[in-house]
Amino acid sequence: MRTISVILKLSFACLLLCLPAAAQTSTTGVVQGTVTDPQGAVVSSAEVKLVDPTTNRSQVERTNNDGLYVFVNVPPGIYKVTVAKTGFRTDRVEDLKVEVNKSYTVNFTLELGQMTEVVQVQAGVGAELQTTDAQVGNVVQTRVLRSLPTLGRSTLELISLQPTTTPGGFGSGGTVSGARSDQNTLILDGIDVSDNLTGGQGVSFTQSPVGVDAISEFRMTVTNPNATFARSAGGQVTLVSPRGGNAFHGVGYWYHQNDDLNANNWTNNRVGIRKKELKDNRAGFSASGPFWKDHTFFFGNYEVRRFPQATTFTRLVPTNSLRNGILTFRDAAGNVVPYPLATSTGCGTAGNLACDPRALGISPTVKAMFALLPAGNDITLGDGLNTTGFRGTAPTTLKADAVTFRLDHKITEKMQFMGRYSYQRNLAPQAGQLDIRDPNRVAILRALNTRGTNVTGGLDYTISQNLVNTFRFGWVQNRSDLIGTNPFAVASLLGLTGTDSSIGKVGIDLAGSTLNEPIDVAAQSARTQILRDRNIQYSDGLVWTKGSHTMSLGGEIRSLPFLFTHNDQVTFLTGPIAALGSGSFLTIPATNRPPTCTTSLTTNCLRTSDVSLWNNLYAATLGMLDNLSIVGARDGSLNPLPFGSDLVSKTNMHYFQFHFQDTWRVRPSLTVSYGLTYSWATPPTEELNRIALLTDQNTGEVFTAKGYIEAKRKAALQGQVFNPSIGVRPIKESGRDKLFDTDFSNLGPRIAVAWNPSYRSGVLNRLFGERRTVVRGGFGIVYDRVNTVSVILPAAFGVGFGQVLQTTAPPCNASGSPGPGCNAGAASGNRGLSAFRLGVDGSVPIPSF
User: Fold this and answer.
1) How far is CA 394 from CA 366, 521, 822, in A?
2) Which residue in 188, 354, 369, 403 is deepest, having the highest Cβ count within 10 Å?
3) Which of 151-155, 273-277, 585-589 has the highest mean predicted lDDT (pLDDT)?
4) What backbone torsions phi and psi does residue 492 show, to the nearest 5 degrees?
5) How much is the pLDDT for 291?
6) pLDDT band at 116 (very low <50, low <70, confident <90, very high)
7) Is the pLDDT of residue 338 over 70?
8) Buried b / exposed e across 466-487, counting CB within 10 Å, b at 16+?
9) Predicted confidence (pLDDT) per residue in 480-496, tens digit
10) Residues contacting 62, CB < 8 A, separation 6+
């Protein structure tokens, strides 16, 4: 049965390739109209020629028995339209502007006379009225792209100017016509270049170059898409790259911002920090022209950005007293009381016990880390007694490059080829992970590097006067590399030594958010995530004009491979981190801190608000280990991999779609378009079998959403609670071969009506005019697409293949034999004696699987 299913699917996929997909992601326009004589009778077999003066390319159609002509797949540009018929004068429209994804109705009324007589006319005021469908959206032209201010010089910044869009646009979570923000689609030269990971919610909706000098124009459809589009329920942005022509053109530009025109801010002046550097340079050039006149044309654009800047940061560092193992707090009477941990006897309920029962004081490892930290320079941060602020600037120079090259070639009068290559990179240091050991040369140890590559090829073939085929191929890759410095490397950089042989092999987290380390090791600061999101797309389509019908039939196939490599499990890393301080597992008892102040006890005591801070600084300064954590990676069979192995997921999904649409010109004033789309997406498959399913540990049964809810319902009817123990099972051992079932029910009907009335007199003329008004309405069902972030990432971060392991607050005699005092403390339950201390009590115990 499975073999038959596979054969059927393959056969259907082949059918989709053979069936066309014309205007599916249309980056062209349509020019159509009716030719009549002076009495209003239709003129058949009139020759209509559409000429592109830029390339001298011409297309010729003849009016049918209804006097209709249609030019489909017309690239945006300025065209000449000429109509000739024996016995009539020749009519010509000199400057017809065709824009992306729009239709133009240009009607001609021929006058009697000789063909050699030319009557030059202008397109009617209703030529640009959309009379073929109900799509809503505006075109942003080249002149507007170049003229409107765009801070980042990106075309996408102008999207929020469209109707029904919410503030924020695509790149920052904006929505279109009420659809979710991850349902927006970006189409460049007929190929979907949307970033499937973020789906429009992140800062880079695409990583393909879409600068204002690399795009000639775009149209955004905000509602009522026709049947050729079924990718998502949000906005459809159709962009076109510029084409070359027979004349050479070139432009160069440079935009500059300079911090010499800015003042330093007040905070920097207060602490003596120089003004941040800010010199933003954007420069580039574009060139276009012919390689072979009338046949081969090119366009190229290169843009570079160099932005040497600096980012202000703050860190919490120890004061001189804390560096020497002295905790300092203010009592209720306002006295500042020092507590030298090694010798002080001001702790305990009565205030007569030693603060450090082992009389060891500050951990030698912690003291060495304190020595690597710079002195504070901002007393407004920290508590002012134990911690203070260090404020500085770090260089975060941005580097960006973008290149676009397009080639158009006329193979024959009936066959045209286009190809485009685009590449973009953005290199951006991230100030989250800093090395602050040298306050004069703070280093950034993490960077976010994004790169996008796009190769597009297309072939347009006019099979006959009324039959046109369009093929497109696209290869799109979005790369996002967030590269941090892991705890193994941080430990080596710090070069700490001591009695603990593991010190140089683990990262050390000092007191959580109370103190910072010389080099950040927290997961959010030090993690590495590498993503490769690709789209390999094939589409083919056919447009057939028959009588008053223009029919489009087509389909497409997409392969969506995705690679995700990371060393984090959100808040934990695959490198070991020793957390020092009072946290989730280490609790400091009252015997190890000064007595809490009361109404009768106001001196030599600890205020209630300072108890938590004391516990954290006390434990961290003495080197007490709350826990040591590490993420252990497992293979597809849940076998442990060596510590430090990255978590890797290699998945692939496929998307299929086909459509049929008919635009029926019922009469010159009424057009009805209707169609149907059908699409489905396959569940992801994982090359390394690292997809896990949740199971009921008691029965071993794999959970499904329907089955889980049904079990809940049955238990509730019996007055019971269904709360099973959850287990994990690799998909290859679960009896299933996919994460979820494919939904084959995505049928999307479309229908639209456009009425373009003609009234020559009376009230209706004043209301509607003569072909000056169009009333449009439409209905359609569109299905949301499934993005990587909602399908693949949960599985990649899921339980099983990345397991968080922790050793929690071991007693000091867990490793080695530190001495009788430690053993006695462990027996008595005094954490000041029994807690494991870094740099004193031997090697840090590493968790095991």
Assistant:
1) 25, 18, 44
2) 188
3) 585-589
4) -70, -40
5) 93
6) low
7) yes
8) bebbbbbbbebbbbbbbbbbbb
9) 899 999 888 888 888 77
10) 45, 46, 47, 48, 69, 465
Helix locations, 666-721, DSSP H: 705-717
**Contact criterion met (CB below 8 Å) for 181 and 126:** no
Beta strand pairing status for 387-395 and 336-340? Answer: unpaired
Residue 123 has what pLDDT? 63
* Residue count of the chain: 849
Which of helix, strand or coil describes residue 525?
helix
**Cβ–Cβ under 8 Å, residues 841 and 812:** yes
Residues whose CB falls within 8 Å of the CB of residue 72, separated by 6 or more in sequence, listed in order:
22, 23, 28, 30, 468, 543, 545, 550
Q: Which of 197, 184, 279 is nearest to 239 (CA)?
A: 184
Q: CA 540 to CA 506: how far, in whole Å?
A: 56
Nearest to 105 by CA among 133, 140, 85: 133
- The pLDDT of 232-256, averaged and rounded, is 88
pLDDT in tens, 705-762: 888 899 899 999 999 998 888 888 888 777 777 777 888 999 989 998 988 888 878 8
Contact 573, 486 (CB under 8 A): yes
Question: For residue 690, what are the contacts with CB-CB under 8 A and spacing of at least 6?
Answer: 635, 636, 648, 649, 730, 795, 796, 801
Euclidean distance between CA atoms 612 and 604, whole angstroms: 17
Residues ≥6 apart with Cβ < 8 Å to 318:
370, 373, 386, 387, 388, 515
Residue 414 one-letter amino acid: K
Report how far residue 520's alpha carbon sits from residue 524's, in angstroms, rounded to the nearest whole number.
9
What secondary structure letter does DSSP report for 195? -
CB neighbour list of residue 309: distance below 8 Å, 6 or more residues apart: 276, 277, 278, 279, 280, 395, 396, 397, 398
The two beta strands, 726-730 and 103-105, are unpaired
Give the 3-state secondary structure of residue 77. strand
Alpha helices (runs of H) in 672-761, residue ranges in sequence order: 705-717
Per the structure block, which two tokens stand in for 789?
């972030």
Integer Cα distance of 173 and 628 in angstroms: 38
The amino acid at residue 675 is G
Here the tokens at position 249 are 């053109």
Of 66, 218, 135, 62, nearest to 661 (Cα)?
135
Confidence of residue 603 (pLDDT cuts 50, 70, 90): very high
Please name which of 30, 31, 29 lies closest in space to residue 83, comparing C-alpha atoms: 31
Contact present, 211 and 251 (Cβ < 8 Å): no
Encoding tokens for residue 138? 């505006």
446 vs 263, more confident: 446
Whether the Cβ atoms of residue 367 and residue 634 lie closer than 8 Å to each other:
no
Residue 521 in tokens: 């090791």
> Binning pLDDT at 50, 70 and 90, where does residue 122 land?
low
Measured between alpha carbons, how far is 510 from 505 in angstroms, rounded to an integer?
16
Q: Which of 626, 449, 590 is nearest to 528 (CA)?
A: 449
- Match 């006058």 to its residue by tokens: 111
What is the C-alpha R_g of the chain?
A: 35
Distance between CA atoms of 17 and 553, rounded to whole angstroms?
A: 11
Cβ-Cβ contacts under 8 Å for 530 (sequence gap 6 or more): 480, 481, 482, 483, 563, 564, 565, 566
8 Å CB contact between 537 and 558: yes
Q: Tell the residue number behind the tokens 């005699």, with chain if given.
A: 813
Instruction: Output the pLDDT for position 811.
Output: 59
- 337 near 328, Cβ under 8 Å? yes
DSSP 223: B
Q: Average pLDDT of the chain?
A: 83
- Chain centroid to Cα 717, Å, comes to 44
Q: Is 487 helix (H, G, I), strand (E, B) or coil?
A: helix
Helices (H) and strands (E) in the chain, counts: 14, 40
pLDDT score, position 344: 87
Pairwise CA distance, residues 795 & 800, whole Å:
10
